[in-house]
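Throughout our pipeline, every protein is held as a single compact record rather than as scattered files. This encoding replaces a full spatial description with a residue-level series of whole-number codes. The remainder of this section carries one protein's record, kept here as part of the documentation.
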Amino acid sequence: MSLWSRFKRAMRSIFGGAISSLENPKLILEQNIRELNDQVPKMNENIATVKANVILLQKEAKRLQAEVAALRSKIKSAITSGRDDLARQHAVRFETAQQNLEKTLEQLAHAAAAYDKAQQVKKAFMRERQRKIDEAQEALRASERAKWQANVADALEQFEVGGVDQTHNEMIQRLDQETARNEARIEVALDSVDVQALRLEEEAEDLRASELVNQMKLEMGFDESSPEQDPIAEDPLDSEEKTIGRTRNRESSSS
């Protein structure tokens, strides 16, 4: 490889990468769409020029056809009149008009073919133009969707890294640890207390209270085997009548 070729390749590698980094695909596609739309009026103008040439050639062919027909009639008329000299003059003009007509018809055929080809090219261009515009618009829409998705992804990444998610698990873990410590403290506290001794002491207190109640019942004259009676619940009037009745019975017995 020559030194010049290596130099050109090096320049392309340097400036090509710089230009590629500066290119914005979205802006370039939008510009391409505008250029494709701008080409339609230019193409229509070129096709109109070709069509105008066809129309002019058609008019010229008609004029020459009429001239050829007129000269043919004049030649025949001159021959019929015996004017060969006049017929020869018309014959020269007739020959020239005939040649011009043939050339014009040939040009008209080429112009008509060019116009048909231009129409076909326009149809093909319009199809390709529409296809490229649809592709560009779809790429632009996809770019907008990708941009929105990138924003959502950035938001999710920020949420996971620098937002609530960063402290969420940590706080839950700390609360779980604190709860576990408190539960462990309760278990340790319960283990350190002699629960059996507390229960025995409660039973002893219940037993002493029962003995005290039985002792007071004996002092009050209640038989433990008979149904318990509440002295407070007895009616004072009934007690007084019973006392008066016992006094009278003693007096009657004394007399």
Remarks:
- The mean pLDDT is 77.
- The helical segments are 3-22, 25-80, 84-162, 164-192, 195-219, 236-254.
- Residues 84-162 form the longest helix (79 residues).
